[in-house]
Amino acid sequence: RFSNALKSVARNGEIKNYIQNSQELYPLFMRAAKRFVSGETRLDAINKAKELIAKDYLISLEYIGENTTNADECHAAKEEFISLIHQLGANGIKSTISFDLSHIGMSVDRELALKNLKEMAQAAELYHLNLMISMEESEKTDRILDIYKEVASTYKNVGITLQVHLKRSLDDLNELLKYPGKIRIVKGAYQEPADLKIGRSEELNNRYLEFIRMGVEAEHPISIATHDEKLLEKVFEQGYLKHSNVELEMLDGVRSDLIKNAKNEGYKARVYVTYGTEWYLYLAHRIAEYPPNIYTAVSDIIAF
Ligand code: FAD
After folding, report:
1. pTM metric for this prediction
2. Which residues line ligand 1 (CB under 6 A)?
3. Is 297 exposed, middle or buried (0-12, 13-18, 19+ CB in 10 A)?
4. 176 CA → ligand 1 middle, Å
5. Which residues bind FAD (predicted)?
6. ipTM of this model?
C-alpha cells in the first residue's frame, strides 16, 4: 500500500511541479536522487557511462519517463532517445538504451509507439547498439509484448524485460524465447493484484532460477537483473554467468558491491544509468521497491 501511495504521489503533476519549482525543496530531493540518477542532462549520463566503462562495466542508459499522454511530448522523448543514440555512436560508447514504451507513445496509441520504436531501432542499428524495452504494470503487459513481437523479428537489436513475479510470465517466456532479442529477467517492481502475482519469497527466487535455466538452455541472450544477494549466490553456484550470452545487470547506486565483485570475477556486469528531469519519479520507484531507501534518502538530504 505504501508503494502504491508513493507512486501516486510521484505521478501527481501538481506535487511534482511544486517540488521541481521550489527553490528550497528541489535541491534537497535532488540530493537524494543523486544516489540513483546521473543528472538531468544527456551529458551527465554520458559522463557517468564513460566513468563506468573505464572501470570495465557494460552500460544501460535510460532517459527517465513514463505514461506520456501527449503526442508532442512522446515525440520529444523519442527525439531525445535518437539524439542519445547518435551521441553514443559518435563517442563509440556501446551502451544499451532502455525505455518504457509508455514514454514514447503507447499511452497515446499503439501506432505512435510502434513508429517511434522502429525509428529508434533503425538509428541504434547504425552503431550496433541494442534497445531494451522495460516492462510496466500488468495492465500494459499484453500491449507491450504485442508491440515487441511486431518489431522483434526485423530488429534483432531490440530486447524485452520479463517480470518473474507475474504468474503469466512462464507462458510469456516460452513465447519470447522464439524471438531473437535479449530477455532481461527481473522480479517485478509494480504492486499487482494478489491473484496475478507471486510475492517476494523463496518460491519466487526458485522461479527466477528456473527462468534463467530455461534461457541458458535455449542459448538465448539473457540479462539477470537483480540485487538479491541470496539469489545471486545460487546463480554463481550454478555457473550461469559463465555462459557467453548471460550477463548480470544492476541499477546504478544499488548494491554496487555485488556488481563490482561479479565484474572482478570476470563476469559480464552491466550498470543501469539514468538521467532526465523526471528523476523525482525514478527516486519514488526506488523507494517504493525497497522502502528502507527512505532512510538513505533522508540521510543523503541532511548530509552536507
Ligand atoms: P528484492 O527481493 O526486491 O530485493 C533483494 C535485496 O536487494 C533487498 O533485500 C535489498 O538488499 C536489495 N535491494 C533491492 N532493491 C533495492 C533498492 N531499490 N535499493 C536498495 N537495495 C535494494 N522492474 C520492472 O517491473 N520492470 C522493469 O523493466 C525493470 N527493469 C529493471 C532493470 C534492471 C537493470 C534492474 C536491476 C531492475 C529492474 N526492475 C524492473 C526492478 C525489479 O523488478 C525489482 O523491483 C528490483 O530489482 C528489486 O528486486 P530484486 O531482484 O533486486 O530483489
Report:
1. 0.93
2. 134-135, 161, 163, 186-190, 200, 225-228, 249-251, 254-255, 272, 286, 289-290, 293
3. buried
4. 22
5. 135, 163, 187-189, 226-227
6. 0.97
